């Protein structure tokens, strides 16, 4: 079988996770990825995950400080289809690798630039360090008396997916028009993917909304509840911890039945459980009953009951334990690689499963300079040059003219099609009469509805399925995350393929369509629990006691709350999955463009979240334990940490040896460079507490703003971390507007307001930012396009088969 990017050369001149994961996904799908490294090697090679993030690539050593080296780099880019770099503004131009220079020699080139917080404004020179970007943009200042460190590299993960989607979009345009273009993305745009309601609550507080709502509008926020029964964390008889996720109204009673607690609904206190209670004490009383029942069986016994009764719940694991999860072992989820440096190792498998253009992971990461001679020699022999045939005119947007049918519910899958809508696709959200639960819970104020059309169709009727079959015949792609019943609804792949053989079909489920987890319910917290996010983010000393340690009910409840808070602080696992949905659709549609074939695809919430935690998703004999944050959640170590300043808090990220030396010089402590306890990375980690003790008093001598100004001028990444908050940064920082990270829209519910801007920028075919769609807003117009008369539409509406325009979701 062919791979998507067979014959495509990608030149990778990046450091760190975002660029590496971007080009890893391309390599897994057949691209020849040439990684340019300096004579000493990519500094990121010190991270064990480099072995995974750079699998299947070629290493070419080029000294960019020499004229010959720059000439070789320029020749490589001239031969490329895609060039990915994360230089700071102006640096590529000095090397003759700026877009204007290389596009003249290679007009078909897709040129990708990844920044920290944009290429314009006061943060344009920040290095691509997740911690610094999160601290500066308010991610660490989410409530509480002081900022708290968050471990998951959300900006790099989402940013990498948005870069892959953009690359596929630009290549899609090139295949049709013959023209390359420049694409820009950033870690902050990756973070903004998680702001799925556009900070609407804060806009209301600041009187920014044209049409204020009776209560702050926004998404369902279970993390804000004191007691959240559907998302309870419980302990079992064998001392293991299970994250429950039964947020849908139909699922919580299933859990009650599995525990043989049906009688609770006879108690007046609990009749409205899990959402309606007379007071908080009644809710706490029920929580105690649930916790006490869960300790009566082992985790394995409960999981078997959960499968039988359709209950959402999974044991909380470390990331490395996730390697052995039965579902992740299924269908190429874990691959075996023999690495020349560390020997046999297990790694996470390809991100998306394709039926026709199968992803392949067969080669390890390259040794330094392994391919230098062969690749440079190929340049002399004209070994590769972009082949472009398209002659069509430029489209308005990357995926303009593409129609995607969205049958998804809740957040994870529909948010992915919203990101794809930002790339210009026509996305039609097919909604059931009464609306799906996420629309009802959010009152339609969520990014999941942005830029789409809405059509109400009752797929449980023959007439409704007939309407949809006509729409499928005209569509390019469909996405759904339904666990079962797709055959009865007429939206299974075999049925759709008969109607439209070129359909690109994506199932974006929680677990997958096959394997031991197939068909099981799950929400975001399960993905966080299985991927290791909870245990990674909770902090050393805050993890649960040993499995055989006795615990009282109150102690279990307290520990469960702490584990749940670790999930809440990790960033939405739903969005972590959603960005992969956009990636899958982009890759699938580009594959169809170059092969002429549609295909079946799968992404999963579990798998996407393991990718976000992939720094530890590998196993080999010499693997070192992953660094975890301290008990107070201030950071990973002395040079990757929050420090209290004279009037607030700063975050310091200083990973490289030259940065450490410059930092010691800046704080007038060059004596530390000679001190054996601190003169190597290993010795610094060994004596971490002592180094923190040396640095903490120094940071208290200046204000947070002074430290940021003073150290950034010396190119040491240290930023204020306690203010502004994440919403205020998005709504008021000048850099957000300068870089187009926000967009003013005329919201159908809120009036004039602000939403998150597109996650990538294109020089020739710009992305877009549209307001959300109302429930059923486009039903009649779409049906008219399908050939239905006004009379026929009215008859179908009278029968409840289709909905009217802008009906209320019930």
Give your account of this protein's structure.
- This protein is of the alpha/beta class and 810 residues long.
- Among the domains are: 9-192 and 369-391, Crotonobetainyl-coa:carnitine coa-transferase, domain 1 (Rossmann fold, 3-Layer(aba) Sandwich); 227-325 and 523-569, formyl-coa transferase, domain 3 (2-Layer Sandwich), CATH 3.30.1540.
- Strands 3-2-1-4-5-6-26 form a seven-stranded mixed β-sheet, with helices on both faces.
- α11 (280-294) crosses α23 (553-568) and α21 packs across α25.
- The longest helix is centred in the first third of the chain and has 24 residues, at 154-177.
- The protein is globular and about 75 Å long.
Quick recap:
The chain is an alpha/beta fold and 810 residues long. Helix content is 37%, strand content 15%.
Average pLDDT metric = 91
Query: Stretches where pLDDT falls below 50 for ≥5 residues?
Result: 216-224
Strand order of the largest sheet: 3-2-1-4-5-6-26
CATH superfamily of the domain at 9-192 and 369-391: Crotonobetainyl-coa:carnitine coa-transferase, domain 1
**Classification by helices and strands:** alpha/beta
List how many beta strands DSSP finds. Answer: 26
CATH fold-level topology of the domain at 9-192 and 369-391: Rossmann fold
Largest sheet: 7 strands, mixed
Draw up the topology in text:
Layout: E1 9-13, H1 17-28, E2 32-37, H2 50-53, E3 58-61, H3 67-78, E4 82-85, H4 91-94, H5 99-105, E5 110-115, H6 130-136, H7 154-177, E6 181-186, H8 187-192, H9 200-205, E7 233-235, E8 241-244, H10 251-258, H11 280-294, H12 299-309, E9 313-315, H13 319-322, H14 326-329, E10 334-339, E11 343-348, E12 353-354, H15 372-380, E13 403-406, H16 412-422, E14 426-431, H17 437-442, E15 452-456, H18 462-474, E16 477-480, H19 486-489, H20 493-499, E17 504-509, H21 524-531, H22 533-537, H23 553-568, H24 573-595, E18 599-604, H25 605-612, E19 618-619, E20 635-637, E21 640-644, E22 649-653, H26 657-666, H27 671-674, H28 681-686, H29 688-699, H30 704-712, E23 717-720, H31 726-732, H32 734-738, E24 742-747, E25 751-756, E26 761-762, H33 779-785, H34 790-798
Parallel strand pairs: 1-2, 1-4, 2-3, 4-5, 5-6, 13-14, 13-16, 14-15, 16-17, 17-18
Antiparallel strand pairs: 6-26, 7-8, 8-9, 10-11, 11-19, 12-18, 20-21, 21-22, 22-23, 24-25
């Amino acid at each position: 079988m062919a791979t998507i990017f067979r014959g495509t050369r990608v030149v990778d001149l990046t450091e760190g996770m975002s660029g590496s994961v971007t080009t890893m996904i391309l390599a897994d799908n057949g691209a020849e990825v040439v990684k340019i490294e300096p004579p000493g090697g990519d500094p990121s090679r010190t991270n064990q995950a480099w072995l995974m993030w750079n699998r299947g690539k070629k290493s070419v050593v080029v000294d960019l400080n020499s004229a010959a080296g720059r000439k070789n780099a320029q020749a490589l880019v001239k031969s490329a289809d895609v060039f990915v770099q994360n230089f700071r503004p102006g640096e590529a131009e000095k090397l003759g690798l700026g877009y204007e220079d290389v596009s003249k020699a290679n007009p078909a080139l897709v040129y990708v630039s990844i920044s920290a917080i944009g290429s314009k404004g006061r943060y344009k020179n920040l290095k691509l360090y997740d911690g610094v970007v999160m601290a500066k943009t308010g991610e660490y200042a989410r409530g509480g008396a002081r900022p708290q460190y968050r471990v998951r590299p959300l900006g790099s993960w989402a940013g990498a997916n948005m870069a892959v989607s953009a690359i596929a979009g630009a290549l899609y345009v090139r295949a049709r028009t013959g023209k390359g273009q420049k694409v820009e993305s950033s870690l902050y745009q990756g973070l903004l993917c998680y702001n799925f309601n556009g900070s609407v609550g804060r806009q209301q507080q600041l009187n920014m909304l044209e049409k204020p709502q009776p209560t702050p509008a926004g998404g369902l926020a279970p993390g804000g509840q004191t007691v959240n029964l559907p998302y309870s964390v419980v302990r079992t008889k064998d001392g293991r911890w299970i994250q429950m996720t039964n947020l849908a109204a139909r699922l919580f009673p299933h859990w009650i039945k599995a525990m043989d607690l049906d009688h609770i609904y006879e108690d007046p206190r609990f009749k409205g459980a899990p959402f309606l209670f007379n007071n908080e004490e009644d809710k706490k009383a029920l929580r105690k009953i649930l916790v006490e029942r869960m300790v009566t069986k082992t985790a394995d016994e409960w999981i078997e009951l959960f499968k039988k009764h359709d209950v959402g719940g999974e044991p909380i694991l470390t990331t490395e334990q996730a390697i052995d999860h039965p579902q992740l072992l299924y269908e190429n989820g874990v691959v075996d690689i023999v690495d020349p440096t560390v020997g046999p190792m297990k790694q996470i498998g390809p991100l998306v499963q394709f039926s026709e253009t199968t992803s392949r992971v067969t080669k390890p990461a390259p040794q330094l300079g392994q391919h230098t001679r062969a690749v440079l020699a190929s340049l002399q022999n004209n070994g590769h040059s972009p082949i472009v045939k398209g002659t069509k005119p430029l489209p308005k947007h990357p995926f303009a003219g593409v129609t995607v049918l969205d049958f998804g519910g809740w957040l994870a899958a529909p948010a992915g099609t919203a990101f794809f809508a930002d790339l210009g696709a026509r996305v039609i959200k097919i909604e059931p009469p009464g609306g799906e639960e996420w629309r009802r819970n959010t009152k339609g104020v969520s990014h999941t509805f942005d830029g789409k059309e809405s059509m109400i169709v009752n797929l449980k009727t023959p007439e409704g399925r007939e309407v949809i079959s006509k729409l499928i015949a005209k569509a390019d792609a469909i996405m759904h995350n339904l666990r079962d019943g797709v055959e009865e609804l007429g939206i299974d792949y075999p049925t759709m393929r008969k109607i439209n053989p070129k359909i690109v079909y994506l199932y974006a489920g929680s677990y997958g369509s096959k394997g031991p987890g197939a068909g099981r319910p799950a929400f975001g917290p399960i993905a966080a629990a299985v991927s290791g996010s909870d245990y990674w983010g909770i902090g050393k000393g805050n993890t649960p006691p040993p499995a055989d340690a006795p615990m009282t009910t109150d102690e279990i409840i307290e520990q469960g709350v702490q584990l749940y808070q670790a999930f809440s602080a990790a960033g939405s696992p739903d969005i972590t999955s959603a960005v992969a949905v956009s990636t899958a659709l982009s890759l699938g549609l580009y594959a169809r463009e170059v092969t002429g074939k549609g295909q079946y695809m799968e992404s999963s919430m579990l798998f996407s979240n393991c990718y976000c935690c992939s720094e530890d998703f590998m196993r080999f004999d010499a693997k070192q334990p992953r660094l975890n944050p301290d008990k107070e959640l201030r950071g990973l170590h002395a040079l990757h940490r929050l420090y209290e300043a004279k009037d607030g808090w700063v975050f310091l990220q200083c990973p490289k040896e030259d940065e450490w030396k410059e930092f010691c010089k800046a704080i007038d402590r060059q004596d530390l460079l000679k001190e054996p306890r601190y003169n190597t990375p290993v010795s610094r980690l060994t004596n971490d507490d002592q180094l923190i003790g040396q640095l903490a008093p120094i940071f208290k001598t200046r204000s947070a703003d002074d430290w940021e100004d003073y150290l950034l001028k010396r190119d040491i990444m240290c930023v204020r971390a306690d203010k502004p908050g994440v919403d205020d940064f998005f709504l008021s920082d000048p850099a957000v507007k300068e870089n187009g990270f926000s967009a003013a829209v005329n919201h159908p519910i809120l009036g004039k307001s602000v939403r998150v801007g597109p996650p990538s920028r294109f020089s020739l075919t710009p992305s877009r930012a549209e307001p959300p769609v109302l429930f059923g807003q486009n039903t009649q117009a779409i049906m008219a396009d399908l050939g239905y008369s006004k009379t026929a539409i009215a008859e179908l509406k009278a029968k409840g088969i289709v909905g009217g325009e802008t009906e209320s979701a019930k």
